[in-house]
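Record type: monomer structure entry
Structure origin: computed from sequence
Chain ID: A
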Amino acid sequence: MALLLIKKKKMKDWLIKAMLKSKKFWYAISAVVVPALVTYLGVGEATATDLFHSILVLILGQGIADSSKK
C-alpha cells in the first residue's frame, strides 16, 4: 500500500513538473488571464476577444509543432 502511495506521489510530481515546462500550459493560462486583464484595464471587448483567439491559435500551433517532434 505504501509503495502505491509513493508511486502516486512521484507521478503527481512528474505531472506538475511537465505541466510547468509546457508552452501549451502557459498559453492556456494566458488565454484566461490576458483577456481578463485587458478588459479590466478598459480596453475594448473586441481586443480582448482577438487576443483570446490569437492565444488559442498559439496553442494549436504549439500542439502541431509538438506532434511533429515525436
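Annotation 1: The helical segments are 2-21, 23-40, 45-69.
Annotation 2: The mean pLDDT is 84.
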